[in-house]
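hiii, so i know i said id send this last week but things got crazy w the move. better late than never?? heres the sequnce for the chain we talked about at the cafe, plus the structure i predicted for it. fair warning i was half asleep when i ran it
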Amino acid sequence: MNLNEFIFKVLHDPKATTCAEEERNLAVALGYPTTWRVHRKLIKKEGGQEKEKDKERESTEGEDQIEIMDVIYAGNPQKGVDRWYNHEAAMVASLESTGPYHFKGGQMLKAVAKFAKDDEVEVRYKREWYAATISRRKKVEDGFRYSVIYTEDDSTQDDILESKIRAVNPDAAALRLAKSMDLPSGWKAVRLGKSCVMTAPDGRTFKTKKAAKRYIDALEAEAAALAAAAASGVGDADGDGDGDPPWRTTGHEY
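okay and structure toks below
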């Protein structure tokens, strides 16, 4: 069965879900992120219901009705993720996700690690923070795990949650990302989902690398022009090297 046939069957020939795989497939067919699940139950109502058509009420007595009840989960239900009983609300929530782990369910945005190998950090243990250096990073299903070497005694620890680590220099990650983007020294860059905000040393911010590059080129051109002017003596019209205008005679021998 191809995807189009599956979606058609989901929408027009519904059946209850019986396992996690079916719940994930149903979620994808309905347009939710790939890690979400939709648990579907079918409730059979016996005859006696009524429906409205062309402003006239037609009895459906004697006909069984099937009511679909869906519960939408933002991930594995056993992990206490958010859930909705209304598809419209769930879909709005999935589209308004602010990060890769919003609603704890994992969204379609790519996860971005906060730390890299050789970063100097502090690790929390029993309410205390200890200096360490990141020695290894690995990607896991729900984020990232880190191995560290503690500064005090060179001991090591593996599989540390990102939430238990903090940067010694909060700007280190921003400076490192800017460097990886070939921005000049002193620039910072921060990822916001799929976008990136770049900040110049003077505080000006840019949302595209193209705009940042134009600003960098303008600064470099200005600096080159000033250097050329200084080298050629522009602004020192009397040629005596002190920069005085030609009409000033005080302090000069004429």
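btw Confidence is low (pLDDT under 50) at residues 50-60, 103-109. thought thatd interest u
miss u guys!!
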